[in-house]
Amino acid sequence: MVQVHKAEEIIQAEVRDFGTESVPFEQALGRVLAEELKADRDMPPYNRVAMDGIAFRYEALEQGIKTFKIKATQAAGDRPVEIESAEECIEIMTGAALPASADTVVRYEDLEIQDGKATVLTDEVSKGQNIHAQGKDKKQDEAVALANQVVTPALIGVAAAVGASQLQVKMLPRVVVISTGDELVKIEETPLPYQIRRSNSYTIKAALETYGVQADLLHIPDDIATMKRQLNNCLQQYDVLILSGGISMGKFDYVPQVLEELEVIKLFHKVKQRPGKPFWFGKHAQGALAFALPGNPVSTFMCFHRYFLPWLEASLGAGPKRKAYAVLTKDLTFNPPLQYFLQVNLSQNEQGQMLATPQEGNGSGDFANLVEADAFLELPAEQTNFKQGEVYQVWPFKQLV
Ligand SMILES: Nc1nc2c(c(=O)[nH]1)N[C@H]1C(S)=C(S)[C@@H](COP(=O)(O)OP(=O)(O)OC[C@H]3O[C@@H](n4cnc5c(N)ncnc54)[C@H](O)[C@@H]3O)O[C@H]1N2
Ligand code: MOO
Ligand SMILES: [Mg+2]
């Protein structure tokens, strides 16, 4: 049995590099960028008009000119229309490229327009106002996104702006999520009174999709020969096997035995934690990793977030997971010498602190309450009494505000 930090260390020592691939930028959401993205030209690419109104030369105001002859109207996307003299202006729209002969824009709200002439009504005009200067956001060839950044909707927009229709991203591991257990039936079936529907694999598959990982699902019955054959296939075909169930003390918990018979080297079995104590982790001679998670749904869920996701993020080069902390809002006691992962609800107080309020759980087998919870609060094994106001690391599994 290993401590939580040791289990984490062993898993992190098995971080892999799956290489890079090019994908259409629209399909890159959630992937990890493997290249620096550069501005193909200045951003903005021209002096961009920021208000609908007129453009003219500021020197006109200095000469006492307040009324301008409207030479033309220029929409966004039009080639710039130049003015010939300080008495002229162009009616110009937001997003248009400022003509080189003008340097100042006054918005319609500060104008009176009559008989083809525009009069400036305000004295508060400064040179260069209402213009976004060319290259102010980014210069041509400057980086707009860095390698190892996660592709977000904002990044996809920037990629579009610089014409990067393909993005080089980190390749994802091939993952199979395996359920075991003869009590489990397909979700579309009506279970017999002593059976249940499979759920763990769907939770994990859904969580993986956030990272762009499209995992395959497989169910293996509690039969050694079948399990051996199927797991052997999986070890050849996948980079990662995430299993749930079949790893504890039960007569039909065959997973560790079968994995070891298939030359998956056990790197640890059992972690000093609750839930999730029976967690088994190993690696195959040819490289595949087996995360054999305990079958109780809360245990599966916790181990997946606490161990698998940090491994995935490190393998994709997204850097170590940013740590989050929260303040415990109630006293509690936990006697066993195990790291306790407490289900909590997260909120923020007016001081901007993240608060963790324990959620009444019912052990790791009852998981309907996970829908309400936001995170696991990690309470150290060497401590028994935990006091309101103390701060602990938290593992959120829901999108925070
Ligand atoms: N004698 C002992 N018994 C148990 C111990 C122990 O230390 N000594 N540990 C307990 C703990 S803690 C856990 S956690 C479980 C882990 O059991 P397994 O990993 O062997 O999982 P199973 O026995 O196959 O199933 C446990 C439980 O989870 C349900 N399950 C399994 N897979 C799914 C799934 N895909 N979807 C939904 N539910 C699933 C299964 O029906 C069982 O109820 O062992 C304790 N026992
Ligand atoms: O690890 Mo078990 O999850 O305590 O039920
Ligand atoms: Mg069992």
From TrEMBL:
Pathway: Cofactor biosynthesis; molybdopterin biosynthesis. SMART domains: MoCF_biosynth. It catalyses: adenylyl-molybdopterin + molybdate = Mo-molybdopterin + AMP + H(+). Belongs to the MoeA family. Its cofactor is Mg(2+). Residues 176-315 form the MoaB/Mog domain. This is Molybdopterin molybdenumtransferase. It comes from the Bacteria. Catalyzes the insertion of molybdate into adenylated molybdopterin with the concomitant release of AMP. NCBIfam families: molyb_syn. Keywords: Magnesium, Metal-binding, Molybdenum, Molybdenum cofactor biosynthesis, Transferase. Its EC number is 2.10.1.1. It is an enzyme of class 2 (transferase).
